Please model this.
Amino acid sequence: MKSISKTQRITVAHGDGIGPEIMAATLNIFEAAQVDLAVDTIEIGEKVYARGFQTGIEESSWEKLQQNKVFLKAPITTPQGGGFKSLNVTVRKLLGLYSNVRPCRAYAPFIRTKHPKMDLVIVRENEEDLYAGIEHRQTDEVYQCLKLITRPGCEKIVKYAFEYAVRSGRKKVTCFTKDNIMKMTDGLFHKVFDEIGALYPTIEKEHWIVDIGAAKMADTPEVFDVIVMPNLYGDILSDVAAQIAGSVGLAGSSNIGEEHSMFEAIHGSAPRRAGQNLANPSGLILGAVQMLNHMGLGKSAERIHNAWLKTIEDGVHTYDVYQEGVSKKKVGTKEFAQAIISRLGEEPKSLARVNYKAEEPLNLKYSKSSLVRCKKKLVGVDIFLHEDNRDPNVLGEKIVRALEGLSVQLQMITNRGVKVFPNGMKETFCTDHWRCRFVPKSGDFLDIDAVWMTVRNLGGTGFDVIKTENLYTFDGERGYSMGQGQ
Model:
């Protein structure tokens, strides 16, 4: 990249598998387009994992990322097992890249799709939810993964989605959650969506339960515009959206934080295609286009994106999107990049051209999190036991005897969230993992010493206590779920 002038600096990683090939294609286009950038290269992925770094990145690379603030990353391969962690998740969390933006647009009739009018953007929360990565094995049979949803996290991503819609001239923002089941976690996401949505009267708002919303998106994606959702749903459905638009290989992705950003293709490293000059570099190219626009280099982004559209329109396609009767020429990774370079300065005739204007930063200021704290009251405790006896009635009676004379009483026992004592159903299947809920025998407040005494008495009578969860009300509102069937 000798001809690139040294104005703004970015950090680049070539990745694993097809990563080096598609990154080379992208950087060659940058050079030909005389993009005003300088590049610092770091090594990530398989070789770094092999040197004993469980996150696939070394300390010196972190220094570059923090210094340059903008990261263009090719896909990597994360080794299976051995405690290795996802580099993507690590970078997103440590650099505060809370917003993952994935445009999914159809390019009919030049790319095969059943949804030629599809043009939507998925804005995915990027730091929390089940991706907090907090997991435990608690018994022989039961494993746990904690789903963490925070008000600040919801506020940031929902605000970003609405500001993105305004900036992009979008008319509607849709929220996907599963708050008919997860009433507290997904319920908070939905609640914040309604709160912030009220500040944007010119934007249409709607909410879908994620399962039927996903079905609707897969069947009629053209009815959606911007969709905002928690991390796991967004991860899955953005891949679905990209595929039904034409190919996952065409989709780029941006990860945006308050100070840092990362840009990439949404697909993986595809090691079986590596070194064959076959891979479609479009996902990384379009991710890089998002990067240029984010950095204020809109004219360069526009020039490259329109050349890419013209290349697609001219039927110059890689193997994954090539179709007889529509495509004119099947090319490899290098040749596809060269086709884009030869079209720099040209614009598509059938597909809509892009126009990236220089704009002010998004207005992302919003917070209710600094409000006066709630009045918090301890009203009970859930104590989780590892117990092989599968008869909940025997277990319940044994617990009652163990706690005679204490100020707490056993209210119920659940197994996998279903109430099994008292008055459970014999047909309910039980594992060796039991949630036992204790409440005060009198009054509506539980002293913390009573919690420790309960745990001590249970442990002293042979019970295997594996976890406790205090139960609170917040300004009188219950802050915990009830058992199913209660």
